[in-house]
Amino acid sequence: MSEQIKICCITNRHLSVQDYKNQIINIAQAGPEAIIVREKDLPEHAYKTLAAQVMDICAQYHVLCILHTYTETALCLGAAALHLPLQLLLSMPEEQKRRFCVLGASVHSAKEALQAQRAGATYITAGHVFATDCKPGAPPRGLSFLREVCETVPHLPVYALGGIHAQNAPACIRAGAYGVCVMSECMRYENVQERFKEYQME
């Protein structure tokens, strides 16, 4: 019997196959674990406007919306979830951390995974596992890296990140990942729901 793999979607408006708002609706309709509104090349005021729109869509479809990088914007919008680069999480005041139910961090080693856990992360993304167009020329860290991270923080949900698709996602789960993160897979296809049906563990 097959089991659906948990998928967390990361937005990138530059990759969107159609109007951004419509693509976010498509993604939300596919029922992912969460949508991370990355878009960190936007200035904060523009990010705030976009994030508010995505939060509304996610609320409509009962999908967790995770804002990215901009802590003050997340607090202002009343976001329940925030994802940060590790260094921002490490420097985040404890009072601010307590304002979020979900707090994620990006890590690139087992050592960083431990730091994130100690800093109060409720989940982490570990990457990049496979070669990806998002990091051209950067060698992938591979499944052994992912396995080491998962074994180092066994009680913390780890999402594999980087070059993930339906064919290699099961290997990430077998390496210990809780789920996978995708960007191109959710932004470049109109029928996201059908795409995600292929993410199965046999």
Describe, in short, the structure shown:
This protein has 202 residues and is an alpha/beta fold. It has helices at residues 20-29, 44-61, 71-76, 86-90, 94-97, 110-118, 142-152, 169-174, 184-187, 192-196; strands at residues 3-4, 7-10, 34-37, 64-68, 81-85, 102-107, 123-127, 158-161, 179-182, 200-201. The strands form 2 sheets. An 8-stranded parallel beta barrel has the order 2-3-4-5-6-7-8-9. A two-stranded antiparallel sheet has the order 1-10.
What this model shows, in words?
The chain is built from ten helices and ten strands. The strands form two sheets. It has an eight-stranded parallel beta barrel with strand order 2-3-4-5-6-7-8-9. A two-stranded antiparallel sheet has the order 1-10. It is 39% helix and 20% strand. Helix 1 packs parallel to helix 2 and helix 6 runs parallel beside helix 7. It is of the alpha/beta class and 202 residues long.
